Amino acid sequence: MQRRFRIGTRGSKLALIQAHMVAGFVGQALGLPAEEAAEVVVIKTTGDMVQDRNLSELGGKGLFTKEIEDALFDGSIDIAVHSMKDMPTVLPEGLIIDCLLERADPRDAFLSSKANSIATLPHGAVVGTSSLRRAAQVRARRPDVTVVPFRGNVDTRLRKLSDGVADATLLAMAGLTRMGLLDKVTAPLSTEEILPAVAQGAIGVERRMNDDEAARVLATFHHAETGLRVAAERALLAVLDGSCRTPIAALAEISGKKLSLRAMILTPDGAEVIETSRDGLASDAVALGVDAGQELKSRAGPHFFTVE
After folding, report:
1. Which among 160, 174, 271, 306 is most buried, taking Cβ atoms within 10 Å?
2. Model confidence over 79-114: pLDDT tens digits?
3. In this structure, which topology does domain 238-305 adopt according to CATH?
4. DSSP percent split of the chain into helix, strand, coil, nearest 5
5. Which residue among 78, 86, 167, 291 is the active-site one?
6. Which residues, 6+ apart, have CB-to-CB distance to 153 below 8 Å?
7. Which fold has domain 5-101+202-222?
8. What is the pLDDT of residues 113-151, one digit of tens each?
């Protein structure tokens, strides 16, 4: 009898959309309708349950993965679907992510009824975001603005914006696209204006390393180019020991056999910005990421990575 894959995911609307995307691919791989090939299992994570504090205060990215990974270990799910930008750089021993869907638009979106861009926001405007990376880059461009915490799922943040809690916010284009909410976008932000989070727009599928059947199924829809781009960015992040406490941005792009990587670290107030870039063979993705990370780390000095 054909195994029915149990897919673990967070319970937000976006997470469920992404899990059902993966279910569709599993169905195609097995030649079955998605609902016969897979079952989506919702798992509540610490990061979802605590909404009144910034992630940096709670301990970082693992808040969105621990309970899901526990379910992989105890066998209550077979695979797990994650937004790769939420994933710690080091996975628990025995788990692996070797399947990524084709990356969606990695850019951030600007949402506001008060302005068409960060540059045209009124003096002293309030920008809502709980991303240190977004906050630092906004402050670097507009030191006069006030940044306030903006936790919650996409719908919650859009409601806060319409309620006037902030004059503007930034969200991922990929998530808004998947949710059918592009009409809410005032303008996409070029990657020259706001450099994205590591692996933004990429969906990864995690499995147990010893699950050969899952490995075979997932291999049928792994997107190799996305894998290389994400590998470069996450290699850089690993060198920097990046967490939610340090504003880090990076984007790798591939053209033919060539990979270009841009990366940036900032102080949380946006006053100091250090950037670098690398160009090389896509097959050297990890080495390019490591090299860029080492340069940023050596140029920054320890104060960039110190938690107050």
Report:
1. 174
2. 999 999 989 999 999 999 999 999 999 999 999 999
3. Double Stranded RNA Binding Domain (3.30.160)
4. 40, 25, 35
5. 86
6. 12, 13, 14
7. D-Maltodextrin-Binding Protein; domain 2 (3.40.190)
8. 999 999 999 999 999 998 999 999 999 999 999 999 987
Nearest alpha carbon to residue 300 among 270, 265, 271, 269 = 265
Could you confirm whether 279 is annotated as catalytic? no
Whether 58 shows a pLDDT value over 60: the answer reads no
CA-to-CA separations, 147 to 92, 95, 282, in angstroms, rounded: 34, 37, 37
Instruction: From 218, 250, 256, 237, select the one nearest 294 (Cα to Cα).
Output: 237
Nearest to 9 by CA among 155, 18, 96, 222: 18
Predicted structure pTM score: 0.92
pLDDT at 194 over 80: yes
Centroid of chain to Cα 249: 11
